Amino acid sequence: MRHFLIPFVFLLSALGVSAQAWADEYRETVNMFREAEAPQPYFKSAYGYAVFPTIGKGGFIVGGAYGEGRVYKHHKYMGTTSMAQASVGFQLGGQAYSQIIFFEDQRAYDEFTSGNFEFSAQAAVVAITAGASAEAGTKGTGASVSGGQNNARTSADYYRGMATFIIAKGGLMYEASLAGQKFTFTPK
């Protein structure tokens, strides 16, 4: 009996550490966005938000992106979300970025959490820090490089009740493509 308990206890403790590290990743990502100037007002006034610590994106003519995140309402964890993106057009490379989507009101939150939500190519994304392909997001309209926050667009408007910000983590992506993002939501 004791031989079975030792691996079981070890497994449970490893899962606890893993769950803690996962929670810390979300907390660190939210804090990173809180420290940036542009999204600060949204944390004060938004009904809720979805945060994605890492979205991986890559492409060569045809591309895609994927990331998993969490949804919060009034700063309380409400469930998980995933994002998938497909794109077509000139694109070459790969990158990783963090993304946050603010919900202006309950209507926008309910629309996002209804099950399957899509951002069209018209949705604007604000890049907060320097990075290649600063417009990496749903538009996919072109490659650009920003020298720092002073040279990047640092304000957003709500689109369909949502405002989106990204922070580039690494990589290099050249693109002039059309893309849209599709989200799923699972309540906790």
UniProtKB/TrEMBL annotation:
Keywords: Signal. Residues 1-23 form the signal peptide. Residues 85-183 form the Ysc84 actin-binding domain. The keyword Coiled coil does not apply. The keyword Signal applies. This is Ysc84 actin-binding domain-containing protein.
